[in-house]
């Protein structure tokens, strides 16, 4: 079954065709990153206008690349939240028009669930029960998954998400937007041990907190204690990764799961990927970087499993900007 996935929750307009939730036939992404970089962050109004301009061409490109016609499709999967309301509306309304005019079933997908399902691409079958660490611009969630569509959130951030912390730290260090890749790049020439940054372990809890490490970095910069941006970037990256890896491994052990999955934009960070693999007693699955950041193939993969479970939505499907996973 071929599913058309549509993703417009933030600043990427994306469309993809995926077969049986596993094989990517096309994966098109129109990024707005250069437009928002001028403002140092995402401007919601600008984002929704760009989605309107890009959505039809991106869907046409995805269908053409997959050599698919509408009658080849088994359904449409579209992100309904969490995300920016004006951005989500563009994808959801286009998806509904296509579903109506071609008589196709439609299913609304939680963006975070989509990130998890990037791990089913390409042709992989994670084993349940598993623990997934979702780290993106808006979320840092530790999730226990016992089967398809079955989530228990064991921990989440109490303040900044991991990606948000990277973005803010990059701004503090004058490294531009988006911050994650900029910090990772700068850190390559730095020494992580050069700055002492705090780790919020929050003993007895599986939650995260990243605002303290960000403020500590700000204080050091303001106090003239940072002589090398590369060293500061490396120290910050290691402080965040250390907490993410240690807490994820502890939760996986505690719940005796079979595998650990990584997901979300921050999962494209090499240090995080490598440290988790090195420190985990269990197999670790990580999508390739292009499937960690926002894309529509992951939405189509998740949509496949939703449609298999007869989770079909009506044409009254609406966006839910603050949608939760569980
Ligand atoms: O999942 P995503 O593409 O969008 C959201 O759903 O938020 O994640 C974007 C976040 C941004 O905060 C970005 O700075 C971060 O992921 N990010 C990274 C890296 N690539 C993207 N953080 C650390 N290292 C990276 N290589
Ligand atoms: Zn995302």
Task: Give the number of helices.
Answer: 11
Biggest pleated sheet: 5 strands, mixed
Radius of gyration: 20 Å
Strand proportion, as a percent range, falls in 15-25%
Number of strands: 10
Small ligands present: 5'-O-[(R)-(carboxyoxy)(hydroxy)phosphoryl]adenosine, zinc ion
Strand arrangement in the largest pleated sheet: 3-2-1-4-5
Average of per-residue pLDDT values:
97
Q: Structural class of the helix and strand makeup?
A: alpha/beta
Element-by-element helix/strand order: EEEHHEHEHEEEHHHHEHEHH
N-to-C span? 27 Å
Unreliable residue stretches: none
Question: Could you explain the architecture of this structure?
Answer:
42% of the residues lie in helices and 20% in strands. It has helices spanning 33-37, 44-65, 85-102, 111-117, 162-172, 179-187, 211-222, 229-254, 270-279, 289-292, 297-308; strands spanning 2-7, 12-19, 23-31, 73-81, 106-110, 130-135, 140-147, 150-156, 259-263, 284-285. It has a five-stranded mixed β-sheet, with helices on both faces. The protein has a five-stranded mixed β-sheet with strand order 8-7-6-9-10, sandwiched between helices. The structure holds 5'-O-[(R)-(carboxyoxy)(hydroxy)phosphoryl]adenosine and zinc ion. 5'-O-[(R)-(carboxyoxy)(hydroxy)phosphoryl]adenosine (KG4) binds next to α5 and α6.
């Amino acid at each position: 079954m071929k599913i058309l996935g549509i993703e417009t929750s933030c600043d990427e307009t994306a469309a993809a065709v995926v077969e049986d939730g596993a094989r990517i036939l096309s994966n098109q992404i129109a990024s707005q990153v250069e437009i928002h970089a001028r403002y140092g962050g995402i401007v919601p109004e600008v984002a929704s206008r760009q989605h309107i301009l890009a959505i039809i061409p991106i869907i046409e490109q995805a269908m053409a690349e997959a050599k698919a016609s509408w009658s080849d499709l088994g359904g449409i999967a579209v992100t309904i939240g969490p995300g920016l309301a004006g951005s989500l509306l563009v994808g959801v309304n286009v998806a509904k028009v296509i579903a109506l005019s071609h008589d196709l079933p439609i299913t609304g997908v939680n963006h975070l669930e989509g990130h998890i399902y990037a791990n089913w691409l390409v042709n992989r079958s994670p084993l349940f029960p598993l623990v997934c660490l979702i780290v993106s611009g808006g979320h840092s969630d530790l999730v226990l998954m016992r089967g398809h569509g079955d989530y228990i959130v064991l921990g989440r951030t109490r303040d900044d998400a991991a990606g948000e912390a990277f973005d803010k730290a990059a701004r503090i260090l004058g490294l531009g937007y988006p911050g994650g890749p900029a910090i990772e790049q700068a850190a390559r020439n730095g020494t992580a041990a050069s700055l002492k940054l705090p780790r919020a372990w929050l003993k007895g809890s599986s939650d995260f907190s990243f605002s303290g490490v960000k403020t500590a970095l700000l204080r050091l910069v303001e106090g003239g204690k940072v002589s090398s941006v590369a060293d500061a970037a490396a120290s910050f990256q290691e402080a965040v990764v250390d907490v993410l890896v240690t807490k994820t491994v502890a939760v996986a052990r505690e719940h005796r799961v079979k595998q650990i999955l990584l997901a979300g934009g921050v999962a494209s960070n090499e240090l995080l990927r490598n440290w988790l693999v090195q420190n985990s007693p269990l197999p670790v699955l990580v999508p390739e970087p292009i499937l960690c950041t926002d894309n529509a193939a992951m939405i189509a993969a998740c949509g496949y499993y939703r449609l298999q479970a007869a989770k079909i939505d009506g044409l009254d499907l609406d966006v839910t900007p603050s949608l939760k996973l569980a």
